[in-house]
């Protein structure tokens, strides 16, 4: 970030807070100093007008909110390139959360990598994983229930361009196919390939998989 834009962010962030502090202080100070005159009335067209000071509780709440804003900007990033005393960032928080989730899923995927396709097809958790992966990565083209969006292949019928087998499904997912089917070899690992391939294969035989 350039010095110019960094300075603008400081000005636009701190300027309103400083101005609000000054306005609050000057008005509250004047209202307290003139409190002896709050009974002075002025009448206009029969309507009486008198001066009342700003309530103390209202001023105290505003001071607390302003103090909170300054403390927040001191501790967290909010002023240009300033990282805050806590050095917190949303990207670091995201990476920590991703690592926490990955540590939980790695153990599950590791146990599936050493299991053959036939055994995985009998594992309800593996099939559930396959369905979730399908809906996350494949549903945009093939639909949530694998019955396809417009101009994309329906995976629940008997019209297949390639062999209708688990091995063929795994190859399609890994390497992709000519036309619009991308390869997922850089996105999914072996356990994911097996789970999705088994899920697609089972769509041909079990209607309850679609529910």
Précis, in short:
The protein has 211 residues and is mainly alpha-helical. The chain contains eight helices and two strands. The C terminus is likely disordered.
Please characterize this protein's 3D structure.
- By secondary structure, this protein is mostly helical.
- Helices cover 57% and strands 4% of the residues.
- The protein has 8 helices and 2 strands, in the order αββααααααα.
- It has helices at 3-33, 56-75, 90-113, 117-120, 124-137, 139-142, 166-175, 190-202, and strands at residues 41-44, 47-50.
- A two-stranded antiparallel ribbon has the order 1-2.
- Helix 1 runs antiparallel to helix 2 and helix 7 (166-175) packs across helix 8 (190-202).
- The longest helix is centred in the N-terminal third of the chain and has 31 residues, at 3-33.
- The radius of gyration is 33 Å and the shape is elongated.
- The two termini are 51 Å apart.
Mean pLDDT: 80
The CATH superfamily title of the largest domain: Cytochrome c-like domain
Q: What is the CA-based Rg, rounded?
A: 33 Å
Low-confidence stretches: 207-211
Total domains, how many?
A: 2
Gap between N and C termini: 51 Å
Helix tally equals 8
Helix content: 55-70%
- Taken from the alpha-carbon principal axes, the silhouette is elongated
CATH architecture title of the largest domain = Orthogonal Bundle
CATH topology of the largest domain: Cytochrome Bc1 Complex, Chain D, domain 2
Briefly note the structural class of the backbone: mainly alpha
Largest sheet: 2 strands, antiparallel
CATH class term of the largest domain: Mainly Alpha
Taken as a percent bin, the fraction of beta residues is: under 5%
* Series of H and E elements: HEEHHHHHHH
Strand order of the largest sheet: 1-2
Give the strand tally.
2
């Amino acid at each position: 970030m350039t010095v110019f834009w960094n300075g603008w962010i400081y000005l636009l962030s701190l300027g309103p807070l400083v101005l609000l502090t000054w306005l609050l202080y000057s008005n509250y100070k004047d209202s307290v100093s003139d409190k002896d005159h709050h009974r002075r009335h002025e009448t206009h067209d029969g309507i009486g007008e008198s001066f009342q000071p700003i309530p103390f509780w209202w001023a105290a709440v505003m001071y607390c909110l302003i103090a909170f804003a300054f403390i927040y900007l001191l501790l967290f990033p909010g002023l240009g390139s300033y990282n805050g005393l806590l050095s917190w960032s949303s990207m670091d928080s995201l990476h920590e959360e991703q690592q926490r989730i990955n540590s939980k899923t790695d153990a599950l995927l590791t146990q599936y990598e050493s299991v053959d396709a036939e055994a995985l097809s009998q594992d309800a958790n593996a099939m559930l994983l396959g369905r979730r992966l399908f809906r996350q990565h494949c549903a945009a083209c093939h639909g949530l229930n694998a019955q396809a969006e417009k101009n994309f292949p329906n995976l629940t019928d008997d019209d297949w361009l390639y062999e209708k087998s688990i091995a063929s499904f795994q190859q399609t997912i890994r390497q992709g196919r000519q036309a619009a089917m991308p390869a997922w070899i850089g996105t999914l690992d072996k356990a994911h390939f097996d789970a999705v391939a088994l899920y697609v294969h089972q769509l041909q035989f079990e209607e309850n998989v679609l529910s």
